[in-house]
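Bench notes, afternoon.
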Amino acid sequence: MTAPVQPALDGSVPAPSLDYHSWCDTVRPAFVAAAQSGRRFTVYEVAKDADLPEPANPRADWGNLTQALVRDGLLEHCGFDRTLRPSGEHSAVSVWRGTRAAQAGRVA
């Protein structure tokens, strides 16, 4: 049973959020493409450039996705930078790049 969706004050109805696994399946191709490019990036940059949807639990799900991509051998940590996310108050965030295997197309 699902709870009714409360419309916003302007009358619009928010889009239904995806469950975590469906959301991962939706956003993963953008991170695979970023990893294969060989460039350095933050998660926010990829999400913004690809216009990715926000997860149901943004505080945890972006990090969980990133760590899954690391475990899959797709990404490696390569430093820190200040976030460009408007709500991030320029806090430090991880910078990632694709592994050599990802850049060669052996991991996706």
